[in-house]
Amino acid sequence: MGSLTKKQKNTFLRIIVTFVLLAGLIVCEHLGVFGELPWWALTLIFLVPYAIIGYDIVIKAVKNIARGQVFDENFLMLVATVAAFCIGEYSEAAAVMLFYQVGELFQSYAVGKARRSITDLMDIVPEYANIEWDGEIKQVDPDDVEVGDIIVIKPGERIPLDAVVTAGESMIDTAALTGESVPRRAAPGTELVSGCINVSGTLKAQVTKAFEDSTVTRILELVENASSKKAHVENFITRFAKVYTPAVTAGAVLLAVIPPLFDGNWGEWIARACTFLVISCPCALVISVPLGFFGGIGAASRAGVLVKGGNYLEAVSKLDTIVFDKTGTLTKGEFRVNDIRPAGCTKEELLETAALAECFSDHPIAVSVREAYGKSVDPARVANSGETAGHGVTAEVEGRQVLLGNMKLMRANGITAEPLDCAGTVIYAAADGAYLGAIVISDGIKDGSAEAIKALKAAGAKRTVMLTGDRKPEAEAVGAQLGIDEVYPELLPVDKVNAVEKLLSEGGRLAFAGDGINDAPVLARADVGIAMGSMGSDAAIEAADIVIMDDDLRKIPTVMRIASKTMRIVRENIVFALAVKAIVLVLGALGIANMWLAVFADVGVAVIAILNSMRTLRTK
Amino acid sequence: MKKKFKLEDLDCANCAQKMEDAIKKIDGVTDASVNFMMQKMTIEADDDKFDEIMDQVRETISKVEPDCRIIM
Q1: What are the tens digits of pLDDT across the range A246-282?
Q2: Nearest-10 crossing angle of helices A364-373, A347-357
Q3: What is the pLDDT of residues A486-495, one digit of tens each?
Q4: pLDDT tens, residue by residue, A113-166
Q5: Would you kindly state where each structural domain of chain A is located, as residue ranges?
Q6: Is the ipTM of this complex over 0.95?
Q7: Hey, is A345 helix, strand or coil?
Q8: Which one-letter DSSP state was computed for residue A413?
Q9: A427 forms bridges with which residues in the sheet?
């Protein structure tokens, strides 16, 4: 009981006192001790336990009436119990209040526990930072550290702010952020992400971002705000709750007034109306549904996936088409030169010309060409370089007009090049109108990509699609290797948006997974935008609805499983709560259900639904 | 100015919604949110009147849920 708040402890004590007192009074009643007492004396006697257990509810109810909030559960409990007193059901009146409080306490405890287990998952907030100042190490609040300061991270400590290692070597445990259990190496130059744990050695690092902009703060904010983006089901429950209470209350009034006009049995009908009032709070739904989504989001963040809202979890559970960007998502995004086929010059000359022409480009292909060349390129030898998206680059290399790119670029410039039909990206080169040869570059498939596609199918995805700027043979080879249903090759960045638009128009829910660098518009356009491998990348975190913290595609089927389980649990709760309430309402109207059953239908169902919702947390 | 507060004994999701609606109506408050799950409240309001506004917020909260307290 150590984790109870002051208020909960207080309620607990009141429950025990009332229980003992009430049990004693009920025994006396059955033994006939109160046999001859008039009604007012009995009322006074039972008012004692009633007041102990229910005074706060009465006070709240009265305050709410003063403000005109009639459909408040406190008020309805007050009406129900006062009515029970009036019709001579003294022990029931006090007992209903007692069980209502027991249920409320249990409910508040369960919500608190659920909340704690979720926040424990998100326990990535560093409490302090060690800052080096004049050779002395001081502990300060991470908020007070400024960009450029040198911090010291000892083994076992949490990295307080995003920083770059300046000295020391260590292993970093990123599990809290990525769900990945294998530690990563850190050495001078490595970027450290706040929230991760330094495992083995002491590191010195220069802070790159202030605390409020650091990864840990941004992630926490994202998760905290996630509960404000509500799923359709949640909005439905909110709307339903607004109608439910007035409707049940109206039913209670009708039940208390109309039938007795015919049979004159006021006491009996008022008793039945009271059972209605006790069930009139939609608490089970109002609490358990958001809690279920929150738990699902919590389970996802434990797996290293940030889901920005319950609405996206709902959408993921209904996904049938998953569209992937190829480079950097399905493949490693690391290009290597695999083959050099010169035409009329040496391999070295071809590679040197290509490396020079690409010297201003950051495109992965350009980087790999420069890497293959190996020597440093002198930018002074290059002039007027330009890039055409989806075609290639043009540049003036030592006075020669060099073209470097795909077949489209060659054709557009009237150069005859023999098309190579091999797996990989082929870039053709020409200088001053003469064909120089081709360089074949290929990109390795990421570990687990094929497995992820298979798991996605198992998790319910009907259709997988790959979008790429690559040529058809290369694209189809990768598609076949991964088991992807449809491949859309040779797309320019604009074409990707069009392709997704077309797939969207074919119906069904669509998710797009990309690395978030060039595909922000597509991420935004898809029903669910999934950004990959973006630990620290602002653009991707902004544009996407779901962020996979490490590079692992296999997290997508994991999220789909979490989403389906969450939706199933939420639906179970809704059906269960509504069914029990409906049955008890009917039984209550028929006079079969008493107030005890009504209290169960109210708080008992709420507690069961809360416990059920907590299962979402444990989805793997 | 935007500030975050922790809340204790915020026990009902309905009340959290009611609080949020009521706080948003306070003069000088640009935006407010009461997060039931995280037991947190975020208030965005005019700098110079912030303390005054917080008094009103406290009053509003105790009206909706008398047990709920703001932890500073």
Answers
A1: 888 889 889 888 998 888 888 888 888 888 888 877 7
A2: 140
A3: 999 888 878 8
A4: 777 766 676 667 788 899 887 778 888 888 888 898 899 999 888 898 999 999
A5: 293-330+445-563, 332-444
A6: no
A7: coil
A8: T
A9: A439
Cβ atoms of residues A516 and A537 within 8 Å:
yes
Looking at CA atoms only, how far is residue B13 from chain A in angstroms? 6
Burial A291-322 (b: 16+ CB within 10 A, else e): bbbbbbbbbbbbbbbbbbbbbbbbbbbebebb
Q: Mind telling me how many Å the CA of B29 is from chain A's nearest CA?
A: 19
The b-or-e profile of A46-60 (16+ CB within 10 A means b, else e) is beebbebbbebbbeb
Into which CATH architecture does domain A293-330+445-563 fall?
3-Layer(aba) Sandwich (3.40)
- When CB atoms are compared, the residue of A7, A63, A287 closest to B13 is A287
Q: Which CATH superfamily hosts domain A332-444?
A: Calcium-transporting ATPase, cytoplasmic domain N (3.40.1110.10)
- Cα-based angle A549, B33, A104 (whole degrees, multiple of 5): 95
Residue A353 Cα to chain centre, angstroms: 48
Residue A149 appears among annotated catalytic residues: no
Structural domains of chain B, with CATH: 2-71 (3.30.70.100)
Residues in chain A: 620
CB atoms within 10 A of CB A463: 18
Q: Going by C-beta distance under 8 Å and a sequence separation of 6 or more, which residues neighbour residue A308?
A: A222, A225, A226, A229, A544, A545, A546, A547
